[in-house]
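To fix ideas, we quote verbatim a fold written out as tokens:
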Amino acid sequence: MRRTKSFRWKIATLAAAAALLLGSAAAQTYAIDASSSEARYRVREQLAGLSFPNDAVGVTSSVTGNISLGTNSEVLEGSVVTVDVTRLVSDENRRDNFVRDNLLQTRSHPSVTFVPTLIEGLELPLGTEAAEVAITGELTVRGVTRTVTWTGVATPDGDVVRLSASTTFTFADFGISKPRVALVLSVADDITLEIDLTLRAQ
């Protein structure tokens, strides 16, 4: 009887260990490859001396972080995307200085972070076809955090996932005053953030 109980206990222990091992193997972490990733802001503006509106676009390749998916394709704790906004560059130095010093206040808030909490349209194991995705989470800009949803396309390629997505919000959503400078006649209320990420399986 003792041998039977001992044998059953060993079998149960092995089964539990196997379940844990299988579960951990199914989970997956993807790290951002900064060498082939970038983040952008896009704002429609009307400049003095021009009869048509223009998109102000600032770009940085200083994007780091990782996204981890659990056994049920849920987003795991610790997933985060961080953008170094001190390195944002557009086609106009004066704009860049204004964005850094006045709008984003990068001396106090050098980064913008996004913590994903839900990814729809992407499940483990990943397939081979591009998929439309919606990524919801907490975006923090200049110390203010809001829930936003990014929409875009994720393209798996072996151990790599390429993600292109965007989200739109207003200056007021994050307590940012719209720019008021002499050369800019008007600025649209909406700000669009765009990301092109290369995510590599770890």
In short: Residues 2-26 form the longest helix (25 residues).
